[in-house]
Design goal:
Layout lengths: L6 H23 L7 H14 L3 E2 L11 E5 L2 E3 L13 E10 L2 E10 L5 H20 L6 H13 L4 E2 L5 E3 L6 E5 L16 E4 L2 E3 L5 E3 L6 E3 L5 E3 L2 E5 L4 E3 L4 H6 L10
Helix pairs in contact: 1-2, 3-4
This protein binds magnesium ion (2 copies).
């Protein structure tokens, strides 16, 4: 069942997303070679608590951390640990905040200095696909229009679109209906209507679309061990417009490696 949000609820979600965006930025300051992923998690956890929120992922179905940190061939749901980042790594940081009863959820993949041109392109194009998806997330369209826009764009480069994990509605629950796949057909799926708030989150692999889950029950890795990129925003749909309610702005101010050519 889709929960349609009132204007007040959208405002509450935006307040949650502001804390989230700034928590991401605190983490971004420390993403560099030599950083331990467990320490990055601590930064986010403390920031969120200090600002009156709760890290949505912590204890979610038993997940142990505030952040999912997914390095290189890990697609999503990596558990922060003793791993030390090194030059050439790409690092997906996914975070959620619950604030005054409402969740927010966003993700960003950081290339460290030394990332190859080929992998930087994977990140650029995954980022671009997120915005192509967002452009289709408007009242009167269907979820399949969002899905198709993402899939159609990235597959031209030979990339694999992960099937097992999808975007989702967000509100009082972290994961609500509808599901928002990154693959699909135009004109299919749930109708997009005023009051819908959902996360769009392309997970795009350099090689095969196939993934495997590690024995820890969380970590999702590409089957061919090639890198994977992940960017996530939440949108709120109004009758005449759609707003991106999460922000990567603070991240991009804080992260020292200016990797993205800013066409958006
Ligand atoms: Mg999500
Ligand atoms: Mg997320």
């Amino acid at each position: 069942m889709i929960h349609y949000k009132s204007a007040q609820e959208v405002e509450a979600i935006k307040a949650s997303a502001q804390i989230l965006g700034k928590a991401h930025a605190e983490v971004a300051k420390s993403i560099k070679p030599g950083a331990k992923t467990k320490d990055l998690d601590k930064i986010a956890d403390e920031y969120i608590h200090d600002h009156g929120g709760w890290p949505s992922f912590k204890n979610y179905h038993g997940f142990p951390s505030a952040l999912c940190i997914s390095v290189n061939d890990v697609v999503v749901h990596g558990i922060p640990n003793e791993y030390v980042l090194k030059e050439g790594d790409i690092v997906s940081v996914d975070c959620g905040v619950k604030y005054k009863g409402y969740h927010s959820d966003s993700a960003y993949t950081y290339p460290l200095e030394g990332t190859s041109e080929e992998v930087l392109k994977l990140l650029q194009r995954t980022y671009e696909s997120l915005y192509l998806g967002i452009a289709q997330a408007k009242s009167g369209n269907r979820i399949g229009d969002v899905s198709y826009a993402i899939q159609h764009f990235v597959e031209q480069f030979g990339y694999g679109v992960v099937r097992e994990l999808v975007g989702h509605g967000v509100g009082k629950e972290l994961h609500e209906d509808p599901e928002v796949p990154n693959y699909g057909k135009r004109g299919k799926g749930p109708l997009i209507k005023e009051g819908m708030v959902f996360a769009i989150e392309p997970m795009i692999n350099m090689g095969t679309k196939n993934v495997v889950q590690e024995k820890d029950g969380w970590t999702i890795r590409t089957n061919d061990r090639k890198p994977s990129a992940h960017f996530e925003h939440m949108v709120a749909v109004f009758k005449d417009r759609t707003e991106i309610v999460t922000t990567h702005e603070y991240i991009e101010e804080s992260y020292q490696f200016k990797w993205r050519n800013k066409s958006r």
